[in-house]
Design brief:
The protein is mainly β. The protein is 8% helix and 17% strand. A hairpin with a 6-residue loop joins β2 and β3.
């Protein structure tokens, strides 16, 4: 997977509203890997999200994400 944000960058980026920044910095955030083929585009043809309306199991245990955002 290619890196984003230039040399030394990350392989993922999370975008949130500025008002949520302090809250995001204060929590332990976990990522769950889910099977992509279980999800379908929502509101096609210009989908802004993918959804699944049934039960879905993670592909493995949750991954704790480190807080890479600098503090004020």
């Amino acid at each position: 997977m290619a890196s984003i944000l230039g040399p030394g960058g990350a392989t993922r980026m999370h975008a949130i509203e500025y008002a949520w920044l302090d809250r995001m910095r204060a929590v332990h955030l976990f990522a769950y890997r889910l099977p992509a083929d279980a999800f379908t585009p929502y509101d096609s043809p210009k989908s802004h999200a993918h959804v699944f309306t049934g039960a879905v199991s993670p592909l493995g245990p949750p991954e704790r994400l480190r807080n890479a955002a600098p503090r004020k």
